[in-house]
Structures are given as C-alpha cells and as structure tokens.
Design a protein that fits this description.
Rossmann fold; 2 domains; alpha/beta; seven-stranded parallel sheet; homodimer; two-stranded parallel sheet
Chain lengths: ~325, ~325
C-alpha cells in the first residue's frame, strides 16, 4: 500500500512521512519546496520506501503525472493532504496566497484523487476555521463558522470541498483540526522567531504584543500520534476531530522566558503593546478535545512540557 | 449612492435590481449572460438609473475596469454579489463549474471591492451550506457544516472568504441563506422543468423520483423584501440570516399536480423511484427562520401559496 503526502517537506509533512514509513508503508511525497526544504527531508530521502517529486500541485496535470509515475510501482490508495500556506499573516495581507496554497491545492488534489480512484483522504485542517468564539468551548460541531483570516477561510473552504467529495467519490475522510503545533523541523512560529531574534540582537528579546496572549500548544510527535489514532479508530465517513493539548495553554511571556532560559540566559525581554499579534490572530480560545478523548486518545504532554521540549529541540536545530 | 449587482441578469438579480431602483438608488449591474439573459432585464434596461455591462468577473481586471467606469458618474458604495452557478447537478458532475462560477466570482468581487474601497457586501448564500441535518431544525449557528454538493461547498467557501474580509476591510456584510426560491423570471427549477416537459410531451408529465420529496418554497418577491429588511435592520458586522417560508413545505407531488392543473388539466402524471432527485440534493430539511422573525420579518405566503403564485407566473411567462 502506498500513501501520497502533499506538502511532505514541511514541518508536519516530514513527521507524518516518518510515522507512516515506520508502519512499513510506502510513502510518495510531493512539495513545491516554497516553504518546505530538502534539508527537512534528509532522513526521509535515505529511506528506500520513500519517493519524492518536487512539483506545484496547482499547475495543471503536475500532480496527476507524478501520481501516475508513483503508481507504476504500487498503487496509491490514500492521500494525506498537508500542503498549505503556513504563513498566516502573509495571507492576511494578500488573499491570493491562501487561495492558491491553502485552497487550490486541496481542489486540485481532490480532482487528481477522483481521476485516479484514490478514495481515502486525510486533511490537515485548523482551529482557524472556527473564528473567535470568546470563552465558549470549541467543540467540533460548534457554529457559526466565521474565520477571521484568509488562512482559516481557505481551510474551511477546503473542508467544504472535501465534504462534497465525500458525497460523490471519497469513501474515507479524516479531517484534523489543530491549533499551534510545535517541534522540529521548525520552519515558522513564535519559538523559531524568538531564537532568530536572540541570534540577531544578542542580549535582548523584543516581543510583539504585551506577552499576555495565551494559546494551547501541541507537540508534533503527539499530533502525528493522534492523527494515526483517528485514522485507525474513527468510523464516520467524515471523521472530524479537534486535536490539541488538554489545557488552556501558556502565555507568550512563558515562551519568551523559556526561550531565553535555554538559548541565552543573560538576555533581557522587552514587551510591546496589546495582546493580538496581527490581524487574523485569535487572542485566546478554549479548545475542546473531548471527542478525541472519547475515541481513546489524550496527549501525554501539557502545553508547558510541549513548549519546553520544542524550545530545546529548536535551539539545538538552529545551532547545527 | 450607487449599488453594484453581480449576476444582475439572473432570476434573483433582476428582482433585487428592480427593488433597489424602486428605492431611488442607482444600480450598476454586471453579468456574463451564461444563464442570465437580456430578456430578463428588458424592464431594467429602460430605466435611466440602471447601467449594465456584460463581463466575466473571473477574468482579470474585467470587473475592476467596469466598476471604475460606473464610478465616474457616482461612486459605488455597496455590492450585492449574486453571481453564481445555479445548476446544482452540473456542479456535482464537474466541480470546476462551482469553483469558477460560485466561488471564484466571490473571490474576485472581494478583491475588486478591496481595491476600490467598497465596504458593504450583501451575499446570496444558500441552505446548501448546511448539508444534511435530518430532522434537526436548521438555525444559523448550527454545526457541523458539511455540504453535500459542490454548490453548497463553494457557497460555504464564499461565506468563509467574506468572513475573513470582514475582519480586514469590510464594514457591513449581510449573508442571506435561502433554500428554494420561486417566481419569475424563471430560469431553472422544478416548476419550469415541469412546464417544459408538458410542452414537449403533451398529455403526460414524467416526474423524477416518487414525488414524496418535500421542500419549503419562498417567492422571490418575499425573498427580496426580506433581504432589504435585513440590510436595513440588522446591526451585526456579519449579519447572517436564514430566509425561507415558515412551514415545512410542499411535496413534488403537489407541485406536479398544481402545474398540471394550471398548464394542462388533462395531462396524467407518472412518477419514478426514490425520494432523492440527484446526488447533492438534501431530501428534506427543517429550516428555522426564528432569527429573522425576531428581527421583525415574516413571510406573508406559505409554501403552498408561493408555489401556486409562481406556477401561474411561470406558465404565463412560457406562453409569451
């Protein structure tokens, strides 16, 4: 059995590929390498069960041809669609970024799956589809869905297209909605930013906002574990699950202090104003993973431990 | 004050344009005339406060240029985005239809509005965004949203893009979710189909399905009345309202019998099998308009009267 992964060279892609290979599956990966890198895939590329093709999914026939080639050895029966824009602020400034990289990648992936008869789809959706629900716990069937970023909008658009496809040709769909995921290979995010800032301006870490913004963080190793659990255990045709930590998260202040402690203990921290980093960022939300817990999975790490582990890994990554 | 209407030559577009002109507003309309027609606009085109330009919104710069021309006389301050595919089965067969006509029209309209500083948007959404909720009453904030047609998916995708735009540059958004709307100028739908079938095969009306499929129907005159009511009364930044009849609707059998009664009383009716006409059609749903009633609007006609009125109008339309 072969599995296609789109966006395989990205942060989540690399980790999913490693986990699927570890299960003895053949993995065929594609990526346009716009944000993902070959360096991220260095371990994968040595594995004989891994094949990689650089391509832009939104170019006509590029993905179709690659899949036809991949399938000559062994048919692809399942797709993990992870390709997306990961720079949310970029998509707020320019809606075309998320249209192309977050939505049109989904649309074209579905078209190719339909043509090739691939009927199982795992999709990396996002907590950003929910928009701002204040202090109401975000369960999977909450409404209304009013995303405040183009990223969230195009993830919701992708879910909608997948839902319609589940009515016509898909037999299995797993939609994973996750908030902030951390770990390595880190390609973006607040921790990597902090490490870079400390490298650039030794002795001082300048933080955007007043540091009170609070979010839940999940380590990528746990994310992958949860996704595979859902894939194996969920029975609904449209299996939609929140994946996240079981707590209300940690503040930016905590992350700043931990990063300084690990990377540069003598540096001082300077905070800005306000608790919202950029347009499209939901300042605080309560994320329910009760549905996932009922399916039998719960995270082992809390946000604190996940952040501490990821900071150590990211500092090490940036030193090599 | 000038108002832009996309899809102005379609069924809903013509009726909205007439209502806005009746309020003394200047209306600038665009349409690609793929489903809408100049004949539909015959009354509008005689009105000096109405301007029309044939164009495809999804062609680069076409809408931008037209809006710049329209604005030379008087600035456009508001847009009613009604352009969309109206042939739901066509979009089920080929996802590209709803991608282009239902979603990309929204995306490009938003881009042009952003460029020209038009900050008020009324959008014709659909009950199809909800998917199948069985016997649960469909209120505006129900979840999950799992559309089963590409039409519903691309309407939901449009709502998502509008929601994100409301966070960045739109000041007012009115999202109208309506189910089956009937009346004239009829361009598609079950009643027009029945009238055409009777013209083609005199003496016999063949019905797709067993006739037990039940739906609520709203007359277009009431739809327009409700939309203008919401535009004037709703205060939320993202004002989302179901619009529909206050009852559970009528069966296809009732519509068939009424059409025969008006158009060809001697014809017999032959029914098919099953209660679902085509993939992507939700067989029966309970549509709540409680939110709209709280805003002070309720339909005057029930589904029965709306259907009877529309059939008389459509039979008359097809005789001229």
């Amino acid at each position: 059995m072969s599995i296609l992964i789109t966006g395989v060279a990205g942060f989540v892609g690399v980790n999913v590929a490693q986990a699927l290979l570890a299960k003895g599956l053949r993995v065929c990966g594609v990526d346009n390498l716009s944000r993902g890198t070959r360096k991220n895939m260095s371990k994968l590329l040595k594995n004989p069960n891994f094949e990689f093709k650089k391509l832009d999914i939104t170019k006509p026939n590029a993905l179709l041809k690659a899949c036809q080639q991949f399938s000559q050895q062994e048919a692809i029966t399942e797709c993990w669609h992870l390709a997306a824009n990961s720079d949310i602020p970029a998509g707020v400034t320019n809606a075309a970024v998320d249209l192309k990289d977050t939505f049109m990648t989904t649309y074209h992936t579905l078209e190719v799956m339909k043509q090739l008869g691939i009927t199982k789809l795992a999709f990396a959706s996002s907590s950003a589809i929910y928009g701002d629900h204040g202090s109401t716990a975000i369960v999977e069937d909450i409404g209304p869905l009013l995303p405040i970023s183009n990223y969230g909008a195009m993830k919701l658009a992708s879910e909608a297209a997948i839902s319609a496809a589940a009515e016509s040709f898909l037999t299995h769909t797993w939609i994973f909605r996750f908030p902030n995921v951390i770990g390595v290979p880190a390609t973006h995010g607040v921790m990597l930013d902090f490490v870079h800032k400390l490298q650039k301006t030794t002795g001082c870490l300048q933080v955007l906002g007043n540091g009170t913004q609070q979010k839940g963080y999940l380590h990528v190793e746990e994310l992958v574990d949860a996704m595979l659990w859902i894939r194996d255990k969920a029975s609904e045709k449209r299996a939609i699950y929140n994946i996240g930590p079981a707590d209300e998260g940690v503040t930016v202040k905590f992350i700043a202090e931990e990063t300084v402690r690990v990377a540069q203990p003598t540096a001082r921290i300077e905070y800005g104003q306000g608790n919202r980093g950029w347009v499209g960022d939901v300042p605080r939300f309560v994320y329910s993973i009760e549905k996932l817990k009922k399916l039998g999975w719960a995270p082992k790490l809390g946000s604190i431990q996940a952040v501490q582990k990821a900071i150590r890994q990211i500092v090490a990554q940036e030193q090599t």
